[in-house]
Every structure is written in structure tokens, then in C-alpha cells.
User: Fold these one by one.
Assistant:
Number 1:
Amino acid sequence: MDSCYEKEGTMSRCLPKFENIAFNRTVEASNVCGSPPEEYCMHTGSTRSCHYCDASDPELSHNASLLTDFNRNEEPTWWQSQSMYYNIQHPNSVNLTLRLGKAFEITYIRLKFYTIRPDSFAIYKRTEEDGPWLPYQYYSSSCSKTYRKDAKAFIRPGDDERIALCTDEFSDISPLSGGNVAFSTLEGRPSAYNFDQSLVLQEWVTATDLLISLDKLNTFGDEVFKDTKVLRSYFYAISDFSVGGRCKCNGHASECIEGEHGGLVCVCQHHTVGADCQKCHPFYQDRPWARATGDSANECLSE
């Protein structure tokens, strides 16, 4: 664990451990297969193998808890939506919501799809409970048509670095299974190299909740014939939802624990207080509160 003090007792910046903060957390899914029990078919090259999803049978259930459980590649578990047979295609969306219960600093969000990756989906975040959902990243084969974004856009120095970009890089229909999508929150942000001094990027990586909006399925175009087995072969399925990040403590704590009233709180050092160590202790207000940096702990001082 990172220490907030040097050996000689001087204070230094400290950070909670970096971890997969989604692991074993509950994800809320707006749609899950299996109620009623349904047949679904997997694309395996030129053939389709068909199976059953049944929410009442643990062996055949594909509920949202399987998004964030321990996952072995040779025996994947996965969450699965109903199929196109149940009309989940665009303009209808399927939402996955992950509530973190506290501010975290997000480094990456990774999704491993069990079936074909979606044609279009988006990642949103919010920075306070019941606050507005803010776009984080868009993915689409038709960025301009679906999200009114330019697929080739990038952020120049001096631009607002809190802009969500769109890419068509991960919208191919191949691979038929096992495709990854990883979003790095700081990639392509000009001030990333100077993160300690960038209030904008410190705000950009902060999230209390994440939302994955699955907006459009990827298909071979054969669904137009309305064949039942074809419609049952298109659905969303994700075997792993990972989020790399740290509990946000502004450099003034090395751990987060369960608070008295539930939820996580930072174990604040450097005479700071608050769920995120975001203010000075009442008796240590001789200078304004500041976030700790690599150069200085910026501890709160008493007279």
C-alpha cells in the first residue's frame, strides 16, 4: 500500500491501489434473455449452433452478474440480452449501468464481447449521484449518422479536452466472438503528460457511475428476410466488463474503506477530510486546500 509519509516523517502524495473497480460489482441491465425462456443461435462461420437461455435455470441463465465475475478464457461466462426476435434493434437501446458509490478516477474501460461487437454503442459517465449523463466515448461504423460525430476528429492543444470522440475502428463484423474494445480515458488528450496540473483532465477521468448504451446490432443484412433462426442469432452478449481505476482521494489517502453510513470513503491523511479528502480539517486552514502532486503533498496547515 502506498504510504502518505516518507521514512523521515515528511508528508508525500499517496494513492489508493489501482484495481479493476468493476470486479464483482452489480451491473444493472435494462434487458436480459431468458424471461420467457428462449432459443438463441451462435454464428460459427457458415453454420449456427442453437442453445437455450432460461433465467430461472442457473445453468442456462446469462444475467448481469456474469459481466463482472471472475472470468476464465477457456470457460467464459457472459451476460446476454434478448435477441432481435424480441425487437431490441435500433432505435431501441440496451443499457448497462455500473454504480460505483463514490468518485473514482478512471484509467480505462474494457469490454470483451461474447458475440459480434455492436455496430454502434456509447459510454457515458456521471460525476455525482442523479447528475446528468455525460458522453465519454462513441463507437460506430456510421459516427456522423448515428451520433452526429466525425469519426476522424481529434483533440488539438487548446481545445476542450472533455469532448467525447467517435471511432469506427471496432465496428467490423469480425471477429464473430471474443472481440475486445478498450477505452483509455487519457489517450489523445494533449494535457495527459501534465495531468497533475490539468484540472480539466482531473475532472474528465472522475466518475461515480458508468453507463454502456448498446444502440445498434451488427448484422450480415440477412435479418431482412425475417427468418426466425436468423433473428435469434443477433443479440448483445458481453463476457467481461472491466474498469481500471483508483478511488479518488486527491493524493491525500492510500486506502478507501466502507463508511459509517455505507458507501466508500477515503481514509484521509495530511489533515484533510471529506469522502474524497477534498477539504482541509477545520483546524488546519492556514492555506487553501490543494490536491497533492508528485512534487508536493500540499498538506493542510494549522497556524
Note: The radius of gyration is 22 Å.
Number 2:
Amino acid sequence: MLNIKPVSDLRNYNKLLEQVTTDDPVFLTKNGHGKYVVVNIEDYDRLMTSLEIVEKLKKAESNGTVSLDEAKKRFGL
């Protein structure tokens, strides 16, 4: 279940941050609309790594087909 809080809950940020766990971010609303997400640092790192991989795959796709060994070399795998 989503953990949704008003941004005003940041006044007591220690309590709010205790609710942020791996795979369970806290969504903050402002004026009743989603505005921010507070995530665990491990989740953030995983997200950024995933985005980097997607960007590399898009680049590889636009450059044409390559062998698996060549792809591994290009992406440091």
C-alpha cells in the first residue's frame, strides 16, 4: 500500500524518515496533488543504475545490432 503524506509532515521529518524503507518510499503531496517522493538511498542507486542501463541499451539499439561479446565490452559487463 502506498505511503502518502502531506508535505507539511516534513515539519517532523525524523518521524517521516523512519517510514522510508527499502522498496517502500513515502509520497508527499502539496495542495492535494503528488509532488515529491522520499526514497531510500539503495532504491535511488538502483533506479539510477537501471536508467543508465536503459540509456545504454537505447544507444546500442540506435547503433545497430552487435554481438553479445561486443555489447559486454561496450557496457563493461
Note: The longest strand covers residues 33-38.
Number 3:
Amino acid sequence: MSEAEVVPLLEPREGIPPVCESARALAAAVERLAGGEGPVAVDAERASGYRYGQRAYLVQLRRRGAGTVLVDPVPCSDLCELNNALAGTEMILHAATQDLPCLSELGLVPGRLFDTELAGRLLGYPRVGLGTMVETVLGFTLEKGHSAADWSTRPLPADWLRYAALDVELLVELRDALRTELDEAGKLAWAEEEFAAILSAPPKEPRQDPWRRTSGIHRLRTRRGLAVVREMWTTRDRIARERDLSPGRVLPDAAIVEAALQLPRTPDDLAALPAFRGRNPRRHAAAWFRAVQKGRTLPDAALPEHSLPGEGPPPAHRWAERDPAAAERLTATRAVVAALADEHTMPTENLLQPDAVRRLAWSPPESISEESVGLVLTALGARTWQVTLTAKPLAKAMVRLATKSES
């Protein structure tokens, strides 16, 4: 589409709708949406980087015949009636896995889903952000200036509400266009299977030792330093939860790593570190020092290991040394998946998850065949369409390698 054909989308068609902030307003909105027709566009705004957790601070919905509805989920925290009114209705989200958890907390759980971002990936669009997709497919530009705003702000400014309403303004039309493209490309059944898999996926298990994701932790070489990181991360998480602040606003990761590297012995030593000179670090200085002291004085037996026991295959860069045959299988299977993804115009990770490819290459079935490879892929979470496309060529590639090594 040429630049001249792109039209800026500046205002919602019906103007900025009032925000539902009471049970009465929400009930009226539920009635309006229930009386509409077709799928419902849904979006949520969070306060990532500002507040603790990933709760929603605004929910936007749009349906033909009903217009756009904005709901403040702080006073209207129970959307079960809305969920009941829309039971069986397809809900359209962009990058659904980001918003589904916070919507579920409110009681809004789609029974049917269309994910416009995932549809774009399956169709081979090189960039699948909402603004880019709306521009590429529909010819409108969306203003994205408030995507990283603090949506816990009250009252919400009018220009933020305009931006939020515009995020669902064309989502139904985008879904319609992408659904047609998927159908014409023979990929609609694949997409529907992917959408169903998203909805049926179990909740994510809490990450083991989440403190190990502290940015910069790779700089630490001692278990004692890791212990300090663990104690400071745990302290920060408690304070952040109590104050309802993003942990990074309470104390940045860089400060935790700096303290773990320097192991200050007095409160003054800790306060003298550059990362602890700001107002927020000083506010809880005593708590940070207690955490450092606890990490410094733990008995050796209580110190964390350098890394968690491995689950699954080792890192791929070590395969050539540990199992050369597995390394060859990985190279061959990756090449197969890359070629198939190119043939079907989609990213390799959407054709088959890289982890499934690694696990298959590391631990192939004893007797390699299309059926046995398909069973392994299915057990690893691959969908039927993915198994249908990949099991046979993957089996052939591994059989060729096995035959070659035996000759």
C-alpha cells in the first residue's frame, strides 16, 4: 500500500466513550454489547513498569451494533456478567497471551478466540505490531504514544482514552481481513487450532528461583554473591508488593548486582555505592543492608548453586562435544524446519517450537518413522497441523543421518 493511501486514524467513530466506573454503567454496557452482533474486539491496558503485577487498569471492548465500551476495572473488578452475556462469542485480541491473564482475573475468559498478531505471523507478515498490521492491511495509522503510560493514573487523561478506544476501533475489520487471507492461503484451520491451543493452555507454573532472572547476574562468579542477590531480590519483591510498585522502581537490578559484587560490610559502605545514592534506594536502606548481611553470613550449605539442575537437553553449543550424533541431528532438523517455514511463509518458531526441535534431536525415538516422530512432537505440545507438516520430513532427515553413520 502506497504512503498516499495511508489515512491517520485520529478519532473514534462515535467519539471517546465515557468510562464505566459503576455497577449501573457496567450493566448498561453489558446490555449494549450483548445486543451487538459478530465477534467482540477486546484490549486491556496495564501499568507495567509502574505497578506490581500485571493487573488491568482499563478494558476496551467493541462490537458491531454496540460501539466501543471502556471499563475501569478498579471499581468494576467483576466482569463475570459481561462474560456470561458474551458466552460463545468470538473475542478478538492482538497478542492474546499478554492480555488473557489480566482479563481472566476479572472474570472475562473467551470461549472462542481470534488473535490478530498470531494470524499475521502465520501469514508471514514481517512486522506484526497492531499499528503496523492496521496500516498494512487496512490502510490506517494508529497513534501509539501512550502504550507505555502509567494506566493506574486516575483520572485517565482524555488523550489516553482516545488512544485506548482507537486500539479496538478497527480490530474487528482487521480480524475479518486476516480471516479471509488465512482462508485463501489454506491456513485458517491451522490458525483456529492455534487459537484453541492458547485458550486450553494451563496457567503458567511459577518460575523456579525467579531471582535468577536479575539483569546482570551473569557478572557474579561466587555462590556468596548469588546469595546476596537472592536475599535482596526477595526483600525488594516484598516491598514492591506492599507498596504496589514495579520492583524496578523500588530498587533497580543494577543496584542488587552492585551490592552482590561489592559485599559492603557496613550501612555506610552500602550507601556509598553509586546505585544506592538515589531517593528510592535510600528509603529502604536498612532493609537492603539486612538482606546483604543475611547473604554474607549464610552457612555454605545454604548458599544457592551456580545454576539450577538442567531440565531437558543441554545448551546446543555443547552438543558437538557431548553427543556429536545429536549435534548432527539438530543441524539437520533445524534445516528441515527452516525450509518448511520458508515454503509456507511463516517464522520457524510458529511452524514448530525450537524447544520441540531440540528435544527431538537430543532424544529421538528408538525406531524413527513418521509415526514415531509425530508421537514425540505431539507429546512435546505440537499441534496436529504442525505434526502433519513436519513429522515426515523430520523422520526422513534423521533416517538419512542414521543410515549415513552406519555405512
Note: The beta strands are 7-8, 19-20, 37-46, 56-64, 67-71, 90-93, 112-115, 140-141.
Number 4:
Amino acid sequence: MTSCSEQYIVDENGNKISVILPFSEYQKMQEDLHDLAVIAERKNEETIDINELKRRIGK
């Protein structure tokens, strides 16, 4: 992720409690989280070799 212009909301003691960031950065983070969730769901799936993949795609 690249540095962006986030802003923080702080409580009365100066502790950061929320962040404000550009919507485009939020969308990118959501997409990344989705991708990671898909990877986690599929981590135990059986793998296939490249020749099998080519065979399946060729059909």
C-alpha cells in the first residue's frame, strides 16, 4: 500500500480512535481483504500441475 493522506479522529485524551482516508484507498483495501479471504478459503484445495490446467482450459 502506498502512503495516503489519512486523517485521524482522536478522543479527549489524544488517542486515535478512527481514521479518515480517501474513498479510493478504502475501496482498494476492501478489494485486498476480499482477495485474502478467497485465498484463505481455498488454501486446502488440491493443486493441479500446469499440464492439467492447460488440458482443462483447452476443453
Note: The beta strands are 7-10, 16-20.
